[in-house]
Amino acid sequence: MRALLEQAQRGEARLSISAINLGEVYCILLRFTSEENALQHIRTLGHAVSISGVDFDQTLRAAALKHRYKLGYADSFAAELALSSAATLVSADPSFEKIGKPLKWLKLPRFQ
């Protein structure tokens, strides 16, 4: 993941994250660090990654993916963003296997 972020910072790759998933990242960071440090990480991430807002139609498509594939709520927004923008989803979460071929997925190693 670090290599992808560095590529994005150099303009060699374009990365996007749903605002829903950004909130999830922030919540995870708060488990391991202070609010101040978590915010700094989120701000740094915001320099390399385009943050995609969520509208009514995206919310309904994400909800349909959640229902159809039994995904977590935030995962359904990540999948929706990747599918709607013909992008590759980058995640270690094995639940994206359920979607199959329509989703391009770069599986990262699990963080322990």
UniProtKB/TrEMBL annotation:
InterPro entries hit by this protein: PIN-like_dom_sf, PIN_dom
Pfam families the record matches: PIN (PF01850)
Coiled-coil region(s): none
Domain PIN: 4-101
The protein, known as: Putative nucleic acid-binding protein
Annotated organism of origin: Silvibacterium bohemicum
